UniProtKB/TrEMBL annotation, chain A:
Superkingdom: Bacteria
InterPro entries, per the entry: Fe-S_cluster_assembly_SufBD, SUF_FeS_clus_asmbl_SufBD_core, SUF_FeS_clus_asmbl_SufBD_sf, SUF_FeS_clus_asmbl_SufD, SufBD_N
Name assigned to this protein: Fe-S cluster assembly protein SufD
Family the UniProt entry places it in: Belongs to the iron-sulfur cluster assembly SufBD family.
Residue span(s) of domain SUF system FeS cluster assembly SufBD N-terminal: 20-168
Domain annotation SUF system FeS cluster assembly SufBD core: ranges: 175-405
GO BP field: iron-sulfur cluster assembly
Automatic annotation (TrEMBL), chain B:
Protein name: Fe-S cluster assembly ATPase SufC
GO molecular function: ATP binding; ATP hydrolysis activity
Gene3D superfamilies referenced in this protein's UniProt entry, alphabetically: P-loop containing nucleotide triphosphate hydrolases
Record's keyword terms, sorted: ATP-binding, Nucleotide-binding
Keyword Mitochondrion (UniProt): no
Keyword set includes ATP-binding: yes
InterPro entries in the cross-refs: AAA+_ATPase, ABC_transporter-like_ATP-bd, FeS-cluster_ATPase_SufC, P-loop_NTPase
PANTHER family with a match to the protein in the record: ABC TRANSPORTER I FAMILY MEMBER 6, CHLOROPLASTIC (PTHR43204:SF1)
Species: Flavobacterium supellecticarium
Length: 438, 248
């Protein structure tokens, strides 16, 4: 039985666990139908031209984790932001770990999707938001929707400034020979509310893991949301991250994606504007080697006048690594005075590394400012010589240049502890100790 | 200090240096002048170890030790400093962090401990005052958006921080206004001692009024075609290079 059949068959078992009377169940059934019709994406589809899931899908994944897999805090401590107090929503093999988590209902909700989906008091909210911005066409998103059950549920009410950052972490223990998990996060940020969120997926050993994650974020009027994705997983993990963001007037949302690990990583990051004077930021740093593959597939849908979007992705590819950057900017006819900026810079450290970069601008308004730039280069040998001349050995000079290359992205990280952590990960990736902080 | 014997170097099979002989003793200042394209910057790059240039013949000895096989950073660790004709912009690395890294890597190579942070700060303060560099400047990205003159002044600031044995200043005067020229030259003079040496590459007598050379060499078509005292620079200013070119 291939993975698709297995998933379709297991839906019945899943139905036994959930309330089939709820309206939600219709949503799930519809979604399953869409997945059944479309199946897993293949390279024949334009959007998946450079990313093949074939090899991954051949593995015999369990689609439901065993009930409880405990991990020792000591073992996973390093994956948290340790120098700062945070709310934590932590899952182990897809199951909520109350032991590792630190949730709240005090002035803001930082808790579980499973309770939000089942408890009557959340029904209104779920009906209003759940699956409202997520695609109903994308087969992988539909697959997630069909099995949507667990994940983080975050609701920051009007005018509330979250008092500390929120960490969402998904651990995989490897207790299953091969595991597929489908987290589903829902994040609602009310008018004038502020929040900072980090999200991380982490396997604790080398058993294959396939993650098909969907996150919906709703930013209301003047809300400020900073979202950070830390993707530094082991090389047997494949991550398909589908993030959908709906922004209301004057909201400011930024998503930083740090991709340093994993086998195949696909980031579908979608911003939809539903108001004027919206600000959207999409930034990323990719540093990969070996045979790793990263595919950033972004969309900013400008639908209203006077909005801005800023995209800045930096990639460093070594060995046989392959990268894809597909950045789509869609500007509707009504979206006059749009200011959309996109930049994608890449460094190839080896002859065998490749990057496919494709800006896609579809502009139907006439009074807009849209710019895009893409560079693919090798290491700047003039800069290398300059630094070596000052006594900095080649390896360190190279690392310093890489640091510098990524600084436009790291500089806008607003959680200082995260900034340090990312700096340390970058230094480790580059095999150096820089002796100063970014 | 520096002995160069019959140095030939080429880039992409084109010979640029065609047999250079030069001896610079500790405590001396040498000026190298010569028309555009003569090979002055090539000579300084070759001494500093730029790999684009292939040394096909000859020797470069620093205090008796052959440099040709050494990497640029190893030469730097032995005290070679090059002030670039065109300093490179490195966005994202502040002047201060760059200097910290350079100094500590050099110390590491010399078997020394890292410089304590307070000592480093003190040194940065002293040297930036010497060159009248605004402290705000030091937190900016290295050379990024610096004016031509600011870049040159920053080169000499780095030289002051690294205290090299042999400093090669490749057209450090170009781009400097009159005040900056005086400040930079003054900085170089203050760093000058009987134990180090300076090679000044320039097109103008102006700089040599401040940094007075013991010897002036004229480089033409990859060879040193004339050597004299400081008065040679004046003569060149007056007559141009034609009379030398014609002599050869
Ligand atoms: N990397 C290179 N590739 C090709 N040609 C080069 C290279 N570097 C130098 N040359 C050539 O070698 C010659 C000497 O150049 P160099 O820069 O050393 O001259 P210079 O004396 O410093 O001139 P200027 O006074 O204009 O600075 C020139 O003809 C130059 O074009
Ligand atoms: Mg030159």
């Amino acid at each position: 039985m291939d993975l698709k059949e297995k998933l379709l068959a297991s839906f019945m078992a899943f139905e036994e666990r959930v309330d089939v009377q709820a309206t939600l169940h219709d949503v799930r059934t519809e979604a399953l139908k869409n997945f059944e019709n479309k199946g897993f994406p293949t390279k024949k589809e334009e959007a998946w031209k450079y990313t093949s899931l074939n090899a991954v899908l051949k593995k015999d994944f369990s689609v439901f984790p065993k009930e409880e897999s405990a991990v020792d805090f000591k073992e996973v401590k390093k994956y948290f932001l340790n120098d700062v107090d945070t709310y934590k929503v932590v899952f182990v093999d897809g199951v909520f770990s109350s032991f590792l988590s630190s949730t709240t209902h005090d002035g803001l909700d930082v808790c579980l999707m499973s309770s939000a989906l089942t408890k009557p008091k959340y029904k209104m909210i779920i009906d209003t938001y759940f699956n409202q911005v997520a695609s109903k066409e994308e087969s992988l998103t539909s697959l997630n929707t069909a099995f949507a059950y667990e994940g983080a549920y975050i609701n920051i009410p009007k005018s509330k400034v979250a008092d500390k950052p929120i960490e969402i972490i998904y651990f995989s223990t490897g207790n299953e020979a091969a595991l597929m998990v489908q987290p589903r996060n829902l994040i609602i940020v009310g008018e004038n509310a502020h929040v900072q969120i980090t999200e991380r997926h982490q396997s604790l050993n080398e058993n294959p893991v396939l993650i098909n994650s969907v996150t919906e974020i709703f930013a209301h009027k003047r809300a400020i949301v900073d979202f950070y994705k830390i993707q530094n997983d082991v090389q047997t993990t494949t991550l398909i991250d589908n993030t959908y963001i709906s922004q209301k007037q004057e909201s400011i949302v930024s998503v930083h994606t740090f991709t340093f690990g994993g086998n195949i990583t696909r980031n579908n990051l979608n911003f939809y504007h539903e108001g004027e004077r919206i600000d959207s930021t999409l930034k990323g740093i990719t540093i990969i080697g070996d045979k790793q593959h990263v595919d950033h597939y972004t969309l900013v849908h400008h639908a209203q006048p006077n909005c801005e979007s800023h995209q800045n992705y930096k990639g460093i590819f070594g060995d046989n690594a392959t990268g894809v950057f597909n950045g789509k900017i869609y500007v509707e006819k009504e979206a006059q005075k749009t200011d959309a900026f996109q930049q994608n810079n890449n460094i190839l450290l080896s002859d065998k590394a490749t990057i496919n970069a494709k800006p896609q601008l579809e502009i139907f308004a006439d009074d807009v400012k849209c710019s895009h730039g893409c560079t693919i280069g090798q290491l700047d040998e003039n800069a290398m010589f300059y630094m070596q001349q000052r006594g900095i050995p080649r390896k360190e000079a190279k690392a310093l240049l890489m640091y510098a290359f990524t600084s436009e992205v790291t500089s806008s990280i607003k959680i200082p502890e995260l900034k340090n952590k990312i700096a340390r990960i970058i230094a480790t990736k580059l095999g150096v100790n820089m002796g100063f902080d970014l | 200090m520096l002995v160069i014997k019959n140095l030939h170097a080429s880039v992409e099979d084109k010979e640029i240096l065609k047999g250079i002989n030069l001896e610079v003793k500790a405590g001396e200042v040498h000026a190298i002048m010569g028309p555009n394209g003569a090979g002055k910057s090539t000579l300084s790059s070759v001494i500093a170890g730029r790999e684009d240039y292939e040394v096909t013949e000859g020797e470069i000895l620093l205090e008796g030790e052959e440099l040709i096989e050494l990497a640029p950073e190893e030469r730097a660790h032995k005290g070679v400093f090059l002030s670039f004709q065109y300093p490179i912009e490195i966005p994202g690395v502040s002047v201060t962090n760059f200097m910290k890294t350079a100094i500590n890597e050099t110390r590491k190579a010399q078997g020394l401990e890292e410089m304590p942070a307070n000592e480093m700060l003190k040194m940065i303060r002293e040297k930036s005052e010497l060159l009248e560099i605004d402290r705000k400047f030091l937190s900016r990205s290295l050379n990024e958006g610096f004016s031509g003159g600011e870049k040159k002044r920053n080169e000499i600031f780095q030289m002051a921080m690294l205290e090299p044995k042999l400093a090669i200043l490749d057209e450090t005067d170009s781009g400097l206004d009159i005040d900056a020229l005086r400040i930079v030259a003054n900085g170089v003079n203050k760093l000058k001692s009987k134990d180090n040496a300076v090679i000044v590459i320039t097109h103008y007598q102006r700089l040599l009024d401040y940094i007075v050379p013991d010897f002036v060499h004229v480089l033409h078509d990859g060879k040193i075609v004339k050597t004299g005292g400081k008065e040679l620079a004046l003569e060149l200013e007056e007559k141009g290079y034609d009379w030398i070119k014609n002599e050869n």
